[in-house]
């Protein structure tokens, strides 16, 4: 077994930090996509029309019940054959966003259901238009309740980003792998990747718990 | 109450001529196998204060909810100011009304709820201005001016910038009254508005409502267990039992000398 070399760690750090930046981008952009799409699904699933709820419900179930990696491969290797191709990172963000939107939709649904019926009734009694009721009354109250749960999905997504290396996104794991492939020494790069993950995700989850205590009173 | 001085600034009900404002024709409402309202007929004249009394489950609250379109009748029609509420006339036939029609007729009606139902994410001021701005199209300034007048009326001027949770139940309910009045409805529906309040807070809310009843010409339809309040403000009292009006008349008659034995029983149980 090789001895741990700090010099080697110093040499590979710039590349790994490049990878970290890609990982962070994928997580943040993926989160924005997941938050937005999930909200679209959640509101669509409350539509009075079955022509809306049925296809959206089917899509959400389908995406939630198939593996993220399969979806990434489909987006990256199959769609270009139909003339739809994006760069690796864009594909990764779409994949993460779509996959996690099926979970955030459920979070929103619970948050919306938790808004008391009296709020809808008061909005009706004031004749507030439906869109205004959503934007001004229901969603602001639902958001408070869903922030902690959404935050947990951001952390989960962060930890899922290494899957993007399978579609050639230059994230941390991809960089570590390519370093190892040239030096034949995987111990330092892979270990540093693990440490970088925990250095970011643990404080984030602590922060979320603080936020949760503040928001959900 | 500091209410009287401010009332001149507060126009609550633009047109009152004592004509028929609300009309229920053979309205039936069922919840499952349970018939809550049974072919109910009744009318309320413009400007009148009408109190609905009767045992729980007799359909009083359902009447208010039907008028507020929080529930739809299974049979029969409801008219407000001559307009059908949940129906439209098309080609000489009555058909279920579209959302736009319902919205238009409903604008004439305001409601205060047992549980206040203020918007907890908005300060008191915005609770009151939200609908005037986004439904009536008032400018922010106009809506705030109207809201200030109403906050004075309900005695809460200094609480405009607080969130509802920072207020007592009685104060919240008075904000809810101001919020409903800000839409200048012709009809104000009051659904057991003091039932959720601590006993010592009831009087403040009832005082505000007495002031409004005495000094404005808004039509009030009120479900309450506060019999003294009902006696004070009502022009007419309707006694409900099992989804029907079994007796109606001025409060002196109903409370002192009811015709129906059932009314007598009910009153002796609650008074």
Could you give the topology of this structure?
The complex is a heterodimer of chains A (217) and B (271).
Chain A: H1 6-44, H2 50-64, H3 68-78, H4 88-113, H5 117-125, H6 130-160, H7 172-183, H8 187-215
Chain B: H1 3-7, E1 20-31, E2 34-45, E3 49-53, H2 60-67, E4 75-80, E5 83-84, E6 87-90, E7 93-96, H3 99-106, E8 109-112, H4 124-134, H5 140-153, H6 169-181, E9 187-191, H7 199-215, E10 219-223, H8 227-233, E11 236-241, E12 244-249, H9 251-256, H10 261-270
Parallel strand pairs in B: 3-10, 3-11, 8-9, 9-10
Antiparallel strand pairs in B: 1-2, 1-4, 4-5, 6-7, 11-12
Helix pairs in contact in B: 4-5, 4-6, 5-6, 6-7
Tell me the radius of gyration of chain A.
21 Å
Detail the poorly predicted runs of chain A.
Answer: none
Biggest sheet of chain A, in brief?
A: none
Radius of gyration of chain B: 18 Å
CATH homologous superfamily grouping of chain A: MetI-like
Categorize the overall geometry of chain A.
Answer: elongated
Global shape of chain B: globular
Write up what this structure looks like.
The complex is a heterodimer of chains A (217) and B (271). Helix content of chain A is 79%, strand content 0%. Chain A is built from eight helices and no strands. Chain A is elongated, with a radius of gyration of 21 Å. Chain B is of the alpha/beta class and 271 residues long. Chain B contains ten helices and twelve strands. In chain B, helix 4 packs across helix 5 and helix 4 packs parallel to helix 6. Chains A and B meet through helix 5 and helix 6 of A and strand 8 and helix 4 of B. Chain B: Its main location: membrane. Chain B: Belongs to the ABC transporter superfamily. Chain B: It is a peripheral membrane protein.
């Amino acid at each position: 077994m090789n001895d741990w070399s700090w010099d080697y760690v110093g040499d590979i750090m710039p590349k790994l930090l490049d990878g970290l930046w890609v990982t962070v981008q994928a997580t943040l952009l993926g989160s924005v996509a997941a938050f937005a799409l999930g909200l679209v699904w959640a509101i669509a699933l409350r539509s009075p029309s079955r022509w809306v709820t049925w296809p959206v419900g089917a899509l959400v179930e389908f995406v939630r019940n198939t593996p993220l990696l399969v979806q990434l491969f489909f987006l990256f290797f199959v769609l270009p054959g139909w003339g739809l191709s994006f760069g690796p990172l864009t594909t990764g963000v779409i994949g993460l966003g779509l996959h996690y939107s099926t979970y955030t939709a459920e979070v929103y649904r619970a948050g919306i259901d938790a808004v008391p019926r009296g709020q809808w009734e008061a909005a009706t009694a004031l004749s507030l238009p439906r869109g205004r009721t959503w934007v001004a009354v229901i969603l602001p109250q639902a958001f408070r309740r869903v922030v902690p749960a959404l935050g947990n999905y951001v952390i989960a997504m962060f930890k899922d980003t290494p899957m993007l290396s399978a579609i050639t996104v230059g994230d941390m794991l991809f960089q570590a792998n390519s370093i190892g492939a040239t030096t034949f020494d995987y111990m330092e790069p892979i270990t540093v990747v693990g440490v970088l993950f925990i250095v970011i995700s643990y404080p984030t989850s602590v922060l979320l718990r603080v936020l949760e205590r503040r928001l959900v009173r | 109450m500091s209410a009287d001085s401010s009332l001149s600034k507060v126009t609550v009900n633009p047109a009152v001529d004592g004509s028929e404002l609300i009309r229920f024709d053979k309205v039936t409402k069922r919840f499952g196998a349970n018939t809550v309202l049974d072919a109910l007929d009744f009318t309320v004249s413009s400007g009148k204060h009408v109190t609905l009394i009767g045992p729980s489950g007799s359909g009083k609250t359902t009447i208010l909810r039907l008028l507020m379109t929080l529930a739809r009748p299974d049979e029969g029609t409801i008219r407000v100011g001559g307009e059908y509420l949940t129906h439209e006339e098309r080609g000489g036939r009555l058909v279920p009304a579209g959302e736009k029609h319902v919205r238009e007729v409903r604008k004439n009606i305001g409601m205060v709820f047992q549980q206040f139902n203020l918007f907890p994410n908005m300060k008191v001021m915005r609770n009151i201005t939200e609908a005037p701005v986004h439904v009536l199209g008032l400018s922010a300034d106009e809506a705030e001016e109207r809201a200030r007048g109403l906050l004075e009326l309900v005695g809460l001027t200094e609480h405009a910038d607080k969130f509802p949770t920072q207020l007592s139940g009685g104060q919240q309910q008075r904000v809810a009254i101001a919020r409903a009045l800000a839409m200048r409805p012709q009809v104000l529906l009051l659904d057991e508005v003091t039932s959720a309040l601590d006993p010592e807070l009831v009087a403040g809310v009832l005082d505000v409502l007495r002031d409004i009843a005495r000094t404005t010409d808004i039509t009030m339809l009120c479900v309450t267990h506060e019999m003294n309040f009902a006696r004070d403000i009502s022009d007419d009292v309707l006694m409900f039992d099992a989804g029907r009006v079994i007796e109606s008349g001025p409060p002196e008659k109903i409370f002192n000398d009811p015709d129906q034995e059932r009314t007598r029983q009910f009153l002796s149980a609650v008074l």
